[in-house]
Amino acid sequence: MKATIYDGTTTRDYSAADSQVLSPDTPYVWVDVVGDNFSDPDLHTLLGDLGIDDPVLAYLRQTDVAGTFALAGDRLVGSTWAAPDDPNGKPVYVHVVWGVGSIVTLRAGGDKAMARVRQEVENRGKSLFAHPTIIPGVLLELIISSVDRRLTDINDGLYQLDEKIMVHASGAQLAQLGSIRDAINPWGRRLAPYNENLKEALVDTSSIPGMDANGVHYLQAYAAHVSGTVNQLSDLLDSLHSVVQDYQTEMTTRQGNRVNQLTVVATIFLPITFMTGYFGQNFQWLSNATMTFADWLLLGVVLPLTLVTVSMVLLRRRGFGQWLVEKRRKHRHRAKPTATVGATKS
């Protein structure tokens, strides 16, 4: 377990002595608590020192549910998500407890995302902490922004994968699409119901103790941000579906081309197949009539080569040439460098 405290000026490791100075008469602080196990007794002791009572602790034990917002006495208890450190990891559940004198975040990961949040909070410094009522909305929006960046990164990777699929589809790309789907699905299961819960919770923000109109504005801005993130996720899922369709189309086209190639080969050798069947019949008169070397040369070499040549000429004039043109076009397209165009990261 680890905890840091930020008072609008400096960030330092949290100590037991800090709990003695958290009051309305002291500078407002943000305490960020990271615990591998939310059932850790030391974690409960630390949160108890911060004035967080048992009902709130029971709520904070939730680690994988659609986040909600609720009032617990004179505190606002809510939750959001941060991007995990692992690109393929699950969303990191972040609890937020806001009250008089402090705001506490509790999580079990997401160090990279939260480091960026801390940097942005420190950039605002005293101007932000001079108005404690806006801190919940600002902090929540900064945390959820890490999700936006992660979804944008996934979308960039999906776009580049689609470009490669259009050039040359392969089995490895199907595995990549599966990984992208596995990375997106956890967000879809959590963010959509969370968005609805958040809208309901913020219908009457006047009931939140100590909250003013300015703070309400920032909470509503956060709710609008979450709605935008849900829309971004929906667009990403649509894009994934489109790329999967592109992959299936390319693989179907490739299989069709293979069938066409086999058909061309079979058509070229069809006359020879017929000739082999015909001359392979055990007719005595046929055997007696084809006994010389000249017969073998004519029927075994010249005639098959002539039939193959005629077949190829006819195919080239009536469709085989179009297949060659398509093959050359695909080859030229593969030779071109693939341009990488990504969405602008926030």
Tags for this model:
single chain; 346 residues; alpha+beta; Beta Polymerase, domain 2; 2 domains; seven-stranded mixed sheet; rod-shaped
- Sheet with the most strands: spatial strand order: 2-1-3-7-6-5-4
Radius of gyration computed on alpha carbons:
34 Å
Distance between the termini: 31 Å
Assign the CATH topology of the largest domain.
Answer: Beta Polymerase, domain 2
CATH H level, superfamily name of the largest domain? CorA soluble domain-like
Quaternary structure classification:
single chain
CATH architecture of the largest domain: 2-Layer Sandwich
What sort of overall outline do the alpha carbons produce when their principal axes are compared?
Answer: rod-shaped
Mean pLDDT: 80
Low-confidence stretches: 334-346
Helix content: 55-70%
Give me the strand/helix succession: EEEHHEEEEHHHHHH
Q: Which strand-content bin applies to the residues?
A: 5-15%
**What is the total domain count?**
2
Largest sheet: 7 strands, mixed
Question: Tally the helices: what do you get?
Answer: 8
Which structural class do the helices and strands define? alpha+beta
Number of strands: 7
- For the record, the CATH class of the largest domain is Alpha Beta
